[in-house]
């Protein structure tokens, strides 16, 4: 693996803060001092600063966020959405390869967090420093689309869990999705930022371990008692091709969050060293549960595995109920990890403009700040809940999220930024060719996986009516 030192812009690059010439550079690198960190004053990106905490958390807190984010109950769909579409050999090769490449890419991105002493606390700020305002807006659009789609999927997941817990057969899925959305809003109102979420993230690891172990143990029991399973790839040749492409997007989603700069913003210095520790935690201990579940689930049920594996489980009923309860609670926490960039935008850019009294408040739990969070975050969660109830295609949202963000924000864009920041002469021909190859491959795979994900959304939308009971 290529060495990943702390990156600073080479002298010939136009990234020197003091020498920034164009208007957008002067605007972007206006130094904002955060005194949240008792150890030192932090220079952070963006002309407006931030209302969220910067540089306060230890590396393990961010590690907990990362592990929680990749071990949501989305993992219950991986046997059906990865191995059932790729088969044993191809699937396992791509899982291992995807993990290694994702770790490498995330370490590269983490090394770009500080450039010339400025901490880039948002992905779009980093893109603006490297490219300019257009790429900042494009990055903002891609990242926030990713966040929105992921959170729609988590609300659908919450509704499915509530429906399974209730045992009420006559009630359709849509009302349960609206109930889940209401619970998510209540939680979003009382938890102000990502730093305040760290203890919940630690608790969510126990929740994730619970439903994972329930699914693994019952799957092993079912697999030992079942007749021989069918491990052939389902569908026509065309469908198999779309399935395989969609599986690649799911693998990309499985190992990447798309919000690493925002998570790294909360970490104490040295930022690159500490984020690497957090990433090691994610890609070692944090990856074991869902890889184990993916393998065991596919072994037990073959290509008949459901995108929500708990549906396959034979029982006992109390264990399945426990798994659904813990899946719901874990999704409640992780929803807000993924929504952090959106919340930061709402709290920093909108709340202080719409509600002048909020700007004067330093207490995150003042009435004014709670009210503004309830209103602004409520709009975001309300729209997400409505979309989840309208199109409750759980597996499709996983694939679309992975295709839109993972191969761009967590792949090609990182390698191109490395080329821009380090400079072609500093990289050498071999490493330059390596980074360009990653850029090209990620662009191709992005278009292919987005097409596959949209294909399935359109297909499922044509098969089911609005507010379908799936």
From TrEMBL:
GO terms for biological process: amino acid transport. It is found in: Membrane. The keyword Magnesium does not apply. Residues 58-454 form the Amino acid transporter transmembrane domain. Its main location: membrane. The chain crosses the membrane at residues 59-78, 85-104, 173-191, 203-220, 240-259, 279-300, 320-339, 374-391, 397-418, 439-458. InterPro entries: AA_transpt_TM. It holds the Pfam family Aa_trans. One of its GO terms (cellular component) is membrane. Keywords: Amino-acid transport, Membrane, Transmembrane, Transmembrane helix, Transport. PANTHER family: OS05G0424000 PROTEIN-RELATED (PTHR48017). This is Amino acid transporter transmembrane domain-containing protein.
């Amino acid at each position: 693996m290529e060495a990943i030192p702390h990156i600073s812009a080479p002298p010939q690059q136009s990234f020197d803060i003091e020498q920034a010439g164009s208007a957008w550079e002067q605007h972007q690198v206006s130094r904002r001092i955060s005194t949240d960190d008792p150890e030192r004053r932090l220079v952070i990106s963006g002309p407006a600063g931030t209302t969220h905490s910067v540089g306060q958390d230890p590396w393990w807190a961010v590690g907990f966020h990362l592990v929680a984010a990749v071990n949501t109950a989305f993992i219950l769909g991986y046997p059906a959405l990865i191995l059932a579409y790729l088969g044993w050999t191809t699937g396992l090769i791509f899982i291992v390869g995807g993990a290694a490449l994702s770790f490498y890419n995330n370490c590269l991105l983490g090394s770009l967090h500080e450039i010339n002493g400025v901490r880039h606390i948002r992905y779009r700020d980093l893109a603006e420093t490297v490219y300019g305002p257009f790429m900042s807006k494009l990055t903002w659009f891609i990242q926030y689309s990713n966040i929105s789609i992921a959170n729609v999927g988590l609300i659908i997941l919450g509704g499915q869990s509530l429906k399974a817990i209730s045992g009420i057969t006559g009630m359709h899925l849509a009302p349960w999705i609206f109930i889940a959305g209401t619970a998510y809003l209540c939680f979003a109102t009382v938890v102000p930022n990502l730093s305040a979420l760290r203890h919940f993230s630690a608790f969510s690891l126990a929740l994730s371990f619970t439903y994972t172990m329930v699914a693994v143990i019952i799957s092993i029991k079912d697999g030992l008692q079942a007749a021989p399973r069918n491990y052939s790839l389902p569908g026509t040749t065309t469908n198999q091709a779309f399935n395989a492409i969609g599986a690649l997007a799911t693998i990309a989603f499985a190992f990447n969050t798309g919000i690493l700069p925002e998570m790294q913003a909360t970490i104490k210095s040295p930022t690159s060293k500490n984020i690497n520790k957090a990433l090691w935690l994610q890609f070692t201990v944090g990856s074991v549960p869902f890889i184990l579940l993916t393998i065991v689930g596919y072994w037990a049920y073959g290509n008949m595995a459901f995108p929500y594996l708990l549906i396959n489980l034979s029982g006992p009923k109390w264990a399945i109920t426990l798994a659904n309860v813990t899946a719901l609670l874990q999704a409640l926490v992780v929803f807000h990890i993924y929504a952090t960039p959106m919340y930061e935008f709402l709290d920093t850019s909108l709340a202080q403009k719409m509600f002048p009294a909020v700007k004067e408040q330093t207490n995150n739990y003042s009435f004014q700040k709670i009210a503004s969070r309830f209103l602004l975050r409520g709009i975001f969660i309300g729209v997400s809940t409505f979309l989840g109830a309208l199109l409750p295609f759980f597996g499709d949202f996983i694939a679309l999220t992975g295709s839109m963000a993972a191969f761009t924000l967590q792949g090609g864009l990182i390698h191109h930024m490395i080329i821009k920041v380090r400079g072609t002469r500093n990289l050498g021909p071999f490493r330059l060719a390596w980074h360009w190859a990653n850029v090209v491959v990620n662009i191709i795979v992005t278009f292919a996986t987005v097409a596959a994900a949209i294909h399935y959304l359109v297909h499922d939308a044509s098969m089911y009516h609005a507010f379908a009971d799936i």
